[in-house]
């Protein structure tokens, strides 16, 4: 089925405008990544510079795994926040009726709302990683005397796996948002699923930096497969009537 990309872009642009105006959405979306991707590596780097002997080697041995966790948590967290606002936020702002009357196919509307949350999540993750790399390398330079981020595995995590993790969060939260009446309610309902995903992400992120490149790519394929399946099923079940019935 052909997509109406002009209509999709119009809805995505509309969502970007709404996001910029919603402080309750923007503030956690920016503050949490800043803490995880700037403050955390800066603190770890300072600790490494202040350590001596065995303590120094102990900190550096844990550094790659320890700082890998925020890289995957950020896109999942940001995607969840924005996806929760996708439809529930429209209901809360009383703009859902105008959204439902837009001349756009139902599947195109669903995917537009997904993209409106997924694109900012990925961009924040990528921009945050660039800042993170500068901070981590700059602070740790007096200790390691080399650039240690990024490696090939880091690039796979950021460019391939990070967007997949964001899409996975979207597959859950957009469907929850369509049923909830407020963004806060969507976050509460989706938390039962998103929190285990976050814990699983934290648990696996350290190991991903120790595997081979093909395995890391394979993990990304699996995550993408699950995310696409969830999103496809969500699009197939999405109708204006169901969304309007939840008002």
Structural summary, described in words:
The protein is mainly α and 247 residues long. The protein has one domain (5-245). It is 87% helix and 0% strand. It contains 9 helices and no strands. The chain has helices at 5-21, 23-50, 53-92, 96-100, 106-144, 152-179, 183-208, 213-237, 240-245. α5 packs antiparallel against α8. The longest helix is centred in the first third of the chain and has 40 residues, at 53-92. The protein is elongated. It starts with a helix and ends with a helix. 39% of the residues are buried. The mean pLDDT is 78.
Determine the oligomeric state from the structure: single chain
The general outline is elongated
Number of strands: 0
Order of helices and strands: HHHHHHHHH
Biggest β-sheet description? none
Total tally of structural domains: 1
Q: Which parts are unreliable, with pLDDT below 50 for 5 consecutive residues or more?
A: none
What fraction of residues sit in β-strands? under 5%
Structural class of the secondary structure composition? mainly alpha
- Cα distance spanning the termini: 29 Å
Secondary structure tally, helices: 9
Radius of gyration: 20 Å
The helical percent reads over 70%
> Quick check: average pLDDT?
78
């Amino acid at each position: 089925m052909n997509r109406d990309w002009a209509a999709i872009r119009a809805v995505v642009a509309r969502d970007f405008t709404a996001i910029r105006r919603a402080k309750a959405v923007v503030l956690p979306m920016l503050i949490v990544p800043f803490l995880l991707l700037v403050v955390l590596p800066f603190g770890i780097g300072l600790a490494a510079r202040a350590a001596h002997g065995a303590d120094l080697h102990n900190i550096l041995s844990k550094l790659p795994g320890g700082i890998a966790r925020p890289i995957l948590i950020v896109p999942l967290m940001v995607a969840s926040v924005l996806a929760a606002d996708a439809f529930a936020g429209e209901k809360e702002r009383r703009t859902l009726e105008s959204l439902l009357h837009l001349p756009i196919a139902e599947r195109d509307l669903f995917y537009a709302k997904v993209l409106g949350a997924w694109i900012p999540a990925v961009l924040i993750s990528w921009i945050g990683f660039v800042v993170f790399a500068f901070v981590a390398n700059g602070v740790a330079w007096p200790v390691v005397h080399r650039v240690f981020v990024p490696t090939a595995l880091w690039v796979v995590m950021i460019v391939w796996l990070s967007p997949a993790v964001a899409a996975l969060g979207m597959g859950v939260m957009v469907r929850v948002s369509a049923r909830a009446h407020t963004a806060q309610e969507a976050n509460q309902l989706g938390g039962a699923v998103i929190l285990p995903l976050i814990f699983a992400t934290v648990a696996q992120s350290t190991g991903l930096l120790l595997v081979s490149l093909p395995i890391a790519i394979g993990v990304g394929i699996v995550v993408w497969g699950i995310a696409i399946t969830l999103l496809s099923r969500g699009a197939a079940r999405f109708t204006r009537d169901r969304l309007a019935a939840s008002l």
